[in-house]
Every structure is written in C-alpha cells, then in structure tokens.
Amino acid sequence: MTVEQLFRLPDLGEGLTEAEVLGWKVAVGDTVHVDQVVIEVETAKAAVEVPVPFEGTVLKLFAEAGSVVSVGEPLIAVGAAAASSSEETGGSGNVLIGYGTKEEQPRTRRRRSKATAATAAVAVAVAEPAVTQAPRVISPLVRKLARDNGIDLAAVKPTGPDSIILRKDVEAAVAKPAPAVDGERIPLRGMRRAIAEKLSRSRSEIPDATTWVDVDATGLMEARKVIGVGVLALMARICVAGLARYPELNSTVDTERQEIVRLRSVNLGFAVQSDRGLVVPVVRGADRLTTSALAAELTRLTELARAGGLGPEDMTGGTFTLNNYGVFGVDGSTPIINHPEAGLLGVGRIVDKPWAVDGQLAVRKVTQLSFTFDHRVCDGGVAGGFLRYVADCVERPLVLLQGL
C-alpha cells in the first residue's frame, strides 16, 4: 500500500513568503531519497535548491516552472510503502535549505521492547505532519490584490492549507455581491438624472476653484426699495456689469480644439427651485436689457419654472449662472459650475451682523458672496477682481445703477 506524503514550500527565511519555480529536478514516477534536491526556486533574495525530506516515488508535481508559490502551498507528493519503518523513512526531518539535513548524532544501540518500539513509531507518525506544516502566511501578491480591491483580509475565509489565504480566496471575496442596502432605491430618471449628469460632467471636466467674501449689503437693500426691484434682479444687473469688465469669465472651453471661446452676448442663467427639482432658466441677451426689463424677464421665467412650463429653449445656451441660495437660509456654499460655462456666483442669506463703519461698530445687513470659476479660462487675479467688483457694487449699488 502506498502512503502519500505531501511536501510544501518551507519557510525560506528572512521574512520571505513566496518563491518562483525555476525548474524541477525530478519528474512524476521518479524515485527520490531523503534530502535529494527536487526543485530550484528563486526568492527576492536568491535562487535556492530545495531538498525533499521524504523518500519514495514522485506521485505529483503541484507547480510549473515560472509559477509563483506561497510558503505552505504544496510542491510535491511522494508515495512511500506503508511497511517502511520509521528509521527508513524519517530521515532527520529538519531541512536546511541548500545544505541537506543535520548530521545525526552517534547513539548507542540497545534493545527496545515491542511496546517501546510501538510508542516510538506512534511518536514519529504524529510528529511528521508538524514538520511540513507552514504558518499562516499571505503572499505580497495576495496582500496587494486585497488592498487594491478594498478587501479586509481578516474577513476572508482561507481555503489554503494550514489556513493560508490564497489568491482565489481574495478573488472570491471581490466577486461576492455587496450586502443589500437597507433602504429605498429611487431610480435616477428625468430631471434628477439630467442634473446629476450635468453636475458630474462639470466636476470631472472643469478644474474649478472657489473664492468668497463677506460684504455689507445694507446699500443693496436700500436700493431695492428705491428702484422697486428684487434682490435677484439687482444681483443680476451687477453680474452683467462685472462680466463686461471681466469678459474672460463670459466664455467656454472647446476641449476638442483646445480653445477658449469668449462669448459676445451674456445669457444669464439663474437657479430656481421647482417641484421637479432645481432648474436654471436663461435670460438671453441680459447685457442688453435695462434693470427693469431684466427684472421683468426674471419674474416671467421664475413663474414658468414653478409652473413646470419651461421649454428646452428656456434652459439652454447660458453663459454664466447666478444662484441666490440665501433663500434657503444658508450663509455660503462652494457652487458647482453649470457646464460648459466658466463661472457661477452664489449669494448667501442677508442677515444683521456687527460691522465696522468709519471706525465705529454698527449693525449692518451682511451677506457672503461665493464665486466658482474655471481655472482654465483665467487665473486667480481675474476671478478675485471680478468678485471684488461685485462686492463693491453690492455695497454701493446706486452708483452702478444710475442711468441703467
């Protein structure tokens, strides 16, 4: 009867956890003896000849030349006759890689009782598996595979010998479907899908930057009463004036032709919250309208948006966007540019705050302006200049609005 003895890649020292097979010195069917070199492997340190601690007939070779084997994985199966005595098959059992086994110490021969011999045989039989048992080691390749896929190795069920985690174990963990989320799944469709796609495209294509400033809006609130238009209309007028001074921001980038396209007309978009979600109607030719005409167009488009009556032509072709998110009771934001435009101005809520006026502390109407711009069309100096101009106009709007 043939007993299969399995020899695994032993610990090669210095923290090495795997080796590449350079070539076999034996083939299936060959007879091998204890400490015979059967395989040559290469580690990160050197090429090593590995001897086998068994004798018998080669039954199987588990690795091919060029393959990478982890410590503890099977290398070769050797068949030995079941009748072999422990002295014939045991060898020293302690493999010193590249150097054979330890030299046996001389010992005195003496008679042993049958019971003693049987006990010794059992001891050898029990001890043999421990010789070839490898520690639980994971190869760097397996570790990298787990790290790249965000897999926690502590949660991976090992299938390798001696509880070693193999590559296939990590691959199985990667392929395993994520646990079902305990919540409601809402299809991304219609307006929500369009918004998601546009904002995602903006984030992925436009290298944007945001700058902001707190301003005294007391004068803006006074101008609102004098002129009889809303804050949105006044901010729209100020935006148009700022774009006339900084035309670099009324532009778009043609990525295919690698060109910045400066646009002659200002088509001003403004954000409106409707029952269908956020929409951005566009006032075409805003730079050619008077303040009152601009206010009237903003009102008309806002009413259409809230009634769900905007057509595609009302929401396309914008060159710059204004977002008055202060109506939601927030102070500031980092706006996302409405692709393919080059800038977006955000206006926070207007609230009473302590403010220094001519060296004296006073309570003023204060708001925060946030400006996000496409860094491809201009540098920070242009963006900062635009925002500072807008801030100055918010603080002294009547000077700007005279004659408009």
Provide key terms for this protein:
21 strands, seven-stranded mixed beta sheet, 10 helices, alpha+beta, Chloramphenicol Acetyltransferase, OB fold (Dihydrolipoamide Acetyltransferase, E2P), 404 residues, Dihydrolipoamide Transferase, four-stranded antiparallel beta sheet
* Estimated helix fraction: 25-40%
Shape: elongated
* Rg from Cα: 39 Å
Bin the strand percentage: 25-35%
Tally of individual helices: 10
Describe the largest sheet. Answer: 7 strands, mixed
Low-confidence stretches: 84-137
What name is given to the CATH topology of the largest domain?
Chloramphenicol Acetyltransferase
**Average residue pLDDT:** 84
Class computed from helices, strands and strand pairing: alpha+beta
Determine the oligomeric state from the structure: single chain
Number of strands: 21
Q: Could you give me the name of the CATH homologous superfamily of the largest domain?
A: Chloramphenicol acetyltransferase-like domain
Short description:
By secondary structure, this protein is an alpha+beta fold.
Mind explaining what this structure looks like?
The protein has 404 residues and is of the alpha+beta class. It has 3 domains: 2-98 and 113-132, RNA polymerase II/Efflux pump adaptor protein, barrel-sandwich hybrid domain (OB fold (Dihydrolipoamide Acetyltransferase, E2P)), CATH 2.40.50; 140-175, E3-binding domain (Dihydrolipoamide Transferase), CATH 4.10.320.10; 190-401, Chloramphenicol acetyltransferase-like domain (Chloramphenicol Acetyltransferase, 2-Layer Sandwich). The protein is 30% helix and 27% strand. It contains 10 helices and 21 strands. It has helices at residues 86-90, 114-132, 140-148, 167-175, 190-205, 218-227, 231-245, 291-307, 380-395, 397-401; strands at residues 2-8, 18-24, 31-32, 36-42, 47-52, 56-61, 68-70, 74-81, 95-96, 100-101, 208-216, 251-254, 259-262, 268-270, 272-274, 277-279, 282-283, 320-323, 343-347, 351-357, 360-374. The strands form 6 sheets. Strands 11, 14, 17, 18, 19, 20 and 21 form a 7-stranded mixed β-sheet that branches. Strands 1-8-6-3 form a 4-stranded antiparallel β-sheet, with no helix packed on it. A hairpin with a 2-residue loop joins strand 15 and strand 16. Helix 7 (231-245) crosses helix 8. It starts with a strand and ends with a helix. Residues 84-137 have low confidence and may be disordered.
